[in-house]
Design a protein that fits this description.
By secondary structure, the protein is an alpha/beta fold. The chain has a single domain (2-161), classed as Rossmann fold. The protein is built from 4 helices and 7 strands. It has helices at 13-16, 56-61, 79-86, 125-141, and strands at residues 2-6, 22-25, 65-71, 92-99, 102-107, 112-120, 144-152. The protein has a 5-stranded parallel sheet. The protein is globular. The chain starts with a strand and ends in a 10-residue tail after the last strand.
Length: 162
């Protein structure tokens, strides 16, 4: 399953839908993570908040490929995209294991293929390097075999990279 998370305006929704099994618009119309860790232990992979991201852990757990389209924010994801990613912490468990000689949380749903990030907006070379490292670490933590970060100058270039 290919999941696409984006922070683009609603006008891009129709153009994105043919490129993924599920498109999640990170429009900020949901509650941010409260840090209760209930999705880890109390009710695994389900957020207690009753909004459209309540099942995001289960949805993202099924992704073979995750594509994130985000505006650059100082070498990181935009706030709405970061909020969606924060709400998906329940894709892992509170238990730890070694993967690649490093300590990581145990995966609740197993391995995935590709974590792809498409970044738009003004970005310096230092921010690009920060973003590459961040996406790579996120991919490892969430059990993705590989990560890819692509930078575009204009939003119109995004569709060609999907």
């Amino acid at each position: 399953m290919k999941i696409l998370i984006h922070d683009l305006d609603q006008q891009y929704e129709a153009a994105l839908k043919p490129h993924a099994d599920l498109v999640i618009n990170a429009d900020g119309k949901y509650a941010p993570c409260q840090g209760c860790f209930g999705c880890w232990s109390k009710h695994p992979a389900e957020c207690f908040m009753k909004d459209r991201l309540q099942q995001i852990c289960r949805v993202m757990g099924q992704a073979d490929e995750l594509v994130i389209i985000t505006k650059n924010l100082y070498g990181s994801y935009s706030a709405p995209v970061k909020n969606v990613l924060d709400r998906s912490i329940g894709t892992s468990t509170p238990f730890s294991t070694y993967r690649g000689k490093q300590m990581h949380h145990t995966l609740r749903y197993g391995k995935h293929d590709l974590w792809k990030t498409i970044v738009y907006g003004d970005i310096t070379e230092e921010e690009k390097e920060t973003f590459r490292l961040l996406a790579e670490r996120n991919a490892i933590n969430d059990g993705f075999e590989r990560s890819e970060v692509l930078f575009v100058n204009d939003i119109s270039e995004v569709e060609a990279l999907l």
